[in-house]
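Sequence in, structure out.
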Amino acid sequence: METYNNFEKELKRLPIEEREKLIEEKKAKCICPTCPSYNKCAIVEREKLFCMIGRSFLCISFEEGCKCDECPIKKEYKLKYNYFCTRSDEKGQRYLNSVWGSTLV
């Protein structure tokens, strides 16, 4: 879990231009478009990288399946949770788990 925390801290230190560039690089590795929950609206709106940016507010409302465990970004940063597109990014799900003491179902 430290890998994600370190990444998040480092990201905050970067100038906005470098931060945006790094996020675009991560989006290039993102496998969200291959997921069963990903839909046409998400394609049109170019929604990606839910694990770091946050859940889909416009397009994805239903969980049709999840490929988060196959994601290279999840593995690289040792992310713990899944269904980022509908539940929240890693940080949000960690917070909810700390408040409620369990994962979202």
